[in-house]
Design brief:
288 residues; Alpha-Beta Plaits; single chain; mainly alpha
Length: 288
């Protein structure tokens, strides 16, 4: 979790610098695509703040108010980031259309240099953060990563649009704005893609079958476990909470059944470290 927080802090610094650079270059260089890119970077700035806050809350230990922990705060922050992307996409699209129907000058050539630097920086940041998101299993960190990718996409689209406007000359000034409009559709797509897994986690969507199979295998490997059933799991932040029914010899005493359930919990958490909580309901074996 601390790793995710550090990456969010890095994103804050990078997005703040890039937003300022792109805004100044866009205004001086007469490029709405670059200004739209700056707006997207500002959204990145706020998203990194949200992710940072969400991860800090999610890292808290369970207490009397939230006995199952604060892990869902991560999904909430990812949902907010996705909504911000959708909002930014709609705003950029509206402004791009307005610019298309309004005659204006061609962008300045120096804006291309700024965009190349932005694409390289943001794509590198995306790869670093996305790798960490996969390692941590964090939806919020993944959302932050894709926000960086969205910024790289808008910058690449702006580069193409400005290049067309400069190469074609008079009459092609709006290519810059069409690039911003195209970028807005990609940002919208990314925003929806970020919200989908966040909604699934908030709705306690079942995790992938691979995790469930690993949990079931770990339980069956414990001596004395004769069968398992009703395995259910849900994601909370970067961890999983699960419950299952374990069948054992009907002659087991309550004390021995309690010890066996403890062994099952230990085996599962050792085999699948991302499982944080295990509720085992012991039952008499009913097989033939």
């Amino acid at each position: 979790m601390n790793r995710g927080i550090r990456l969010a802090q890095l994103g804050l610094l990078v997005n703040g610098v890039l937003a300022l650079v792109k805004l100044v270059a866009g205004v001086l260089g007469n490029s709405y695509a670059l200004i739209a890119d700056a707006v997207e970077s500002v959204a990145d700035l706020f998203s990194s703040l949200i992710v940072w806050g969400g991860l800090r809350v999610a890292s808290r230990d369970p207490d009397n108010r939230y006995p199952f922990g604060y892990g869902k705060a991560e999904a909430v922050s990812a949902m907010i980031v996705g909504l911000m992307l959708v909002g930014a996409a709609i705003g950029i699209a509206i402004e791009a259309v307005r610019e298309i129907v309004t005659p204006h000058h061609s962008p300045a050539p120096f804006t291309l240099v700024v965009l190349v630097a932005v694409v390289l920086i943001k794509e590198t940041l995306f790869r670093v953060v996305n790798k960490s998101a996969r390692d941590l299993g964090s939806g919020a960190v993944a959302a932050d990563a894709w926000h960086h990718r969205a910024d790289a996409i808008t910058s690449a689209a702006a580069f193409i649009g400005i290049s067309i406007a400069l190469i074609k000359g008079p009459g092609w000034e709006m290519a810059d704005d069409w690039a911003a409009l195209f970028a807005s559709t990609l940002i919208l797509y990314n925003g929806i893609g970020i919200m989908r897994p966040a909604v699934e986690e908030l709705m306690d969507h079942s995790p992938n079958e691979e995790l469930l199979r690993a949990v079931d295998a770990a339980a069956h490997a414990v001596e004395g476990v004769l069968a398992t059933e009703k395995l259910k799991a849900r994601k909370s932040g970067t961890r999983f909470l699960l419950e299952m029914h374990v069948q054992a010899e009907p002659s087991l005493s309550l004390h021995d059944a309690h010890i066996l359930s403890g062994k099952v919990k230990h085996a599962i958490r050792s085999a699948v470290p991302r499982v944080e909580g295990v509720l085992v309901h012991m039952e008499p074996y009913e097989g033939q």
